[in-house]
Design goal:
It is a single chain. The protein is built from 11 helices and 9 strands. By secondary structure, it is of the alpha/beta class. The protein folds into 2 domains: 198 residues, Spore Coat Polysaccharide Biosynthesis Protein SpsA, Chain A (Alpha-Beta Complex); 32 residues, no CATH class.
Length: 240
């Protein structure tokens, strides 16, 4: 019998954060009575103990060599057996009612998928300002984050995440999911009652205001958006 959910976790050198996420996943699985939840860690060419930690915790491990988060998500989804595929980043923490909340929406038969919404693990004035702008963007674009979920058949019909994009691939996927849902007369969920907690590690390193002014740095420090993306999300030495 297929599991109800497949949770895909893209991970590159996440040995410090992955155990915390998996602890939160265990709590959510224990509370969920609507079926089985398989956990897949898409190891994106890690050089640390990420894959071993995942295997030791009973996760399925998908090895993905192409260093791109879209590729990691797709690589994990490729072996998923669940009716609904969910995606959470390795530095997140699931709410204990995550699977119950998603299940309620998906079993209504009215939804193709959506997002749980997100909440930062701490607050400050800079984070309040940043998230105020984020919420305004969500309201305008009708695209949200947190734990993303999608009917498995619909995910495959969409073709998954665009592996040619190095950033904003999640927004593109969400828009594609919403478009397919509209054609089928189905809704796309923008939030559930169980929000996902997101890490503030980038803000801890670069400052709580950095996202509000870093776009001004592109021509001065990096020359292009491509260079900024590589430095901010992909460089091994994290030189941003």
């Amino acid at each position: 019998m297929s599991p109800r959910f497949s949770l895909v976790i893209p991970a590159y050198n996440e040995q410090d954060y992955l155990p915390r996420l998996l602890d939160s996943v265990d709590r959510a699985r224990e509370r969920f009575e609507g079926g089985a939840v398989e956990v897949i860690v898409a190891d994106n060419a890690s050089t640390d103990a990420t894959a071993k930690i995942a295997a030791d915790r009973g996760c399925r491990v998908a090895s993905v060599e192409k260093r791109a988060i879209a590729s990691a998500r797709n690589g994990g989804a490729a072996i998923a057996e669940g009716e609904v595929i969910c995606f959470a980043d390795a530095d997140m923490q699931l709410h204990a009612d995550t699977f119950n909340a998603i299940d309620e929406r998906m079993r209504s038969g009215e939804c193709i998928g959506g997002a749980t919404d997100l909440v930062p693990e701490r607050w400050s004035l800079g984070l309040l300002a940043t998230f105020a702008l984020l919420k305004a963007s969500i309201a305008i674009q009708r695209v949200n984050g947190g734990t993303i979920f999608c009917d498995a058949a619909a995910f495959r019909e969409i073709g998954g995440y665009n592996e040619e994009k190095r950033y904003a691939e999640d927004m593109e996927f969400f828009l594609s999911m919403r478009k397919l849902g509209k054609r089928r007369g189905l809704k796309t969920v923008l939030k559930t009652r169980a929000r996902t907690t997101i890490s503030m590690r980038k803000f801890d390193k670069h400052g709580d205001w950095h996202m509000l002014y870093m776009l001004w740095w592109i021509p001065l420090r990096y020359g292009s958006m491509k260079n900024l993306v590589e430095a901010y999300w992909y460089d091994d030495d994290d030189r941003f």
